[in-house]
Amino acid sequence: MRGAAAKCTCIVLSLLVSSLFVRTGNATGTEVFGEEGGYVDLPCAPAYDPTNNLHWQVIQRGTGSNIIFLVKEPGKDVEIRYTRLAGRLSLRDSNNLRISNLNRDDDSVDSTDPHFVGTYRCSQPQEEDPLEGDQFILRVRRTPAPPTDLEVIAAKLYSVTVEVTAGNDGLVPQSLCVWYREQGTEEWKKGSGDNSCSRNGVTEGEEITLQSTLPAANTTYQICVVAQNRLNSTRCGDAYIQAITDSK
Fold it and tell me: Is residue 113 part of a domain?
């Protein structure tokens, strides 16, 4: 896990794991899950005809427009029509789609790319008996979003109490923890004490109060709150505030 003072050394490889049929907004399809940095395989219809063109597309939520992002013509190489997908798409068994190195923008619901908010589907647009495969709602489990609205509400001799608002959990249960460093130093350290971390399962928008023990009185510290789930964690970066412990 990548914490405020630690680097991630793990590689996540994830297979498609789901068969739940759901409705999201006005989109209906089979919900499938992958993990950030891993991959999913989306099956095409068994009636696929290798002598005709194959399209993989997104049916946009709200508009119903078809955004074609992959084309395979008989006897030709796969054509990928979106730069950000280059090197990440491949066909398995000629027609099933593998998306590798998954990230949030591949997510059918939370993508920041509006073209990919919708359902994935394969099709073959031949004039007679066109093929349309099943629709898939792809969810990408990922690093949680950084918490917001960090505020120091008390600083005592050897402790600090803060309030913070939780961000999106990345579809994996998250907890929030206090980290600190003395002003003028580089190393972030994880807070200590019974209330320095929240429970697991904090939800987006939830306001959390945390308290951490600090090493010294009458000292200026930089305080941040890290969101973490089993995949990864946020970094302190520039998202910290200052607190001064009381003098003796």
Answer: yes
Q: Supply the range of the domain harboring residue 171.
A: 148-244
CB 40 within 8 A of CB 20: no
On whether the pTM is more than 0.90, the answer is: no
Each residue of 206-243: pLDDT tens digit? Answer: 999 999 999 999 999 999 999 999 999 999 987 899 99
Q: How many C-beta atoms surround the C-beta of residue 133 within 10 A?
A: 24
Q: What is the rounded radius of gyration, in angstroms, for the C-alpha atoms of the chain?
A: 23
Please enumerate in sequence order all residues whose Cβ is within 8 A of that of 187, keeping only pairs 6 or more positions apart, or say none. 5, 181
Residues 153, 222 within the same domain: yes
Half-sphere exposure for 238 (CA within 13 Å, toward CB): 0
For residues 112 and 106, give the distance between their C-alpha atoms in angstroms, rounded to a whole number.
9
**Nearest CA-CA partner of 189 in 138, 113, 240:** 240
Do both 90 and 30 map to the same domain? yes
Q: What confidence tens digit (pLDDT) does each residue in 30-69 have?
A: 999 999 999 999 999 888 888 999 999 999 988 888 999 9
Residue ending a domain, choose from 105, 125, 141: 141
